[in-house]
């Protein structure tokens, strides 16, 4: 049956991460990881439902958009760096440069997502109260669009080769899964270079005092450089957001729309009151 083939195709990219991260959790936390997994079951269902929604309806269009954007910039000579610049450099050097640039762009884009205009969509990602590796798939379509446009435009403007852009995306994707795991690892001194699961968990704490910390995905040096580093040790604080948001998939998808509707109602109500007073 066609739908079974489609289901298998959707499940395949999750199979090896699921097995690998489950084994890692058992090694790191023992039977406690099984209790954590049971407690997180409801949140995982939401994450996986949003993954299917994204894979079927959102990701194909975003992929086409990113490719079209890169082609348009190249065709109109708008790239800041010629693609030829990268041709004679060693493959490993190009890959490393792309990872550093990609995380620098991602750091500032992530900070922008915590600003009032973009937060309602990004809050969906932060609404998971039992963060697991599947939390990486809890993103609102608006958030996916802004990520693709900002990151894709920046890398395309620099003329980086497609293979390096793809390698960057895959690295950020799978490392992103890893740092969303419920692990107490801080990486010790290496945590001053790389983002650890403990460091990123502090970013997801419900207390708004920590919402402006730890924006990087790969390199913690960016948070240290720009004053947003906070990694005192393993994080056991409650996770989630204080926003009034539905717990189900529909509530998550409608949240930015409801926030926008409240803002518009408030704006028009204020204008109406002002008009009555003037009259």
Q: Mind explaining what this structure looks like?
A:
The chain has 279 residues and is mostly helical. The chain has one domain (24-274). 64% of the residues lie in helices and 0% in strands. The chain contains ten helices and no strands. Helix 3 (41-75) runs parallel beside helix 6 and helix 4 (91-113) packs across helix 7 (162-179). The chain is globular, with a radius of gyration of 21 Å. It starts with a helix and ends with a helix.
Detail the topology: elements first, then pairings.
Layout: H1 2-29, H2 32-39, H3 41-75, H4 91-113, H5 119-126, H6 141-157, H7 162-179, H8 197-203, H9 221-225, H10 249-278
Helix pairs in contact: 3-6, 4-6, 4-7
Brief sketch in words of this structure:
With 279 residues, this protein is an all-alpha fold. The protein has helices at residues 2-29, 32-39, 41-75, 91-113, 119-126, 141-157, 162-179, 197-203, 221-225, 249-278. It has one domain.
3D shape: globular
**Helix-strand pattern, N to C?**
HHHHHHHHHH
Strand content: under 5%
What is the terminal-to-terminal distance? 68 Å
- In percent, how helical is the residue content? 55-70%
Helix/strand-derived category reads mainly alpha
Average pLDDT number: 92
- The number of helical elements comes to 10
């Amino acid at each position: 049956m066609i739908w079974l083939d489609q289901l298998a195709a959707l499940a395949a990219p999750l199979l090896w991460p699921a097995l690998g991260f489950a084994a890692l959790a058992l090694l790191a936390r023992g039977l406690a990881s099984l209790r954590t997994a049971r407690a997180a079951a409801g949140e995982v269902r939401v994450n996986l439902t949003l993954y299917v929604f994204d894979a079927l309806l959102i990701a194909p269009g975003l992929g086409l958009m990113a490719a079209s954007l890169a082609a348009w910039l190249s065709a109109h000579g708008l790239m800041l760096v010629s693609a030829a610049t990268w041709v004679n450099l060693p493959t490993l050097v190009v890959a490393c440069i792309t990872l550093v640039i990609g995380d620098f762009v991602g750091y500032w884009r992530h900070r922008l997502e915590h600003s009032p205009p973009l937060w309602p969509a990004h809050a969906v990602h932060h609404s998971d109260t039992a963060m697991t590796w599947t939390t990486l798939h809890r993103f609102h379509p608006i958030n996916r669009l802004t990520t693709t446009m900002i990151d894709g435009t920046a890398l395309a403007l620099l003329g980086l080769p497609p293979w390096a852009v793809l390698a960057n995306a895959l690295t950020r994707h799978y490392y992103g899964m890893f740092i969303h795991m419920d692990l107490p690892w801080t990486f010790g001194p290496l945590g001053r270079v790389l983002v650890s699961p403990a460091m990123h968990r502090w970013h997801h704490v419900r207390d708004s005092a920590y919402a402006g910390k730890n924006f990087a995905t790969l390199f913690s040096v960016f948070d240290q450089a720009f004053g947003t580093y906070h990694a005192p040790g393993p994080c056991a604080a409650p996770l989630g957001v204080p926003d009034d948001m539905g717990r189900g998939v529909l509530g998550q998808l409608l949240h930015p729309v409801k926030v926008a509707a409240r803002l518009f109602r408030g704006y028009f109500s204020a204008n109406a009151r002002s008009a009555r007073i003037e009259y």
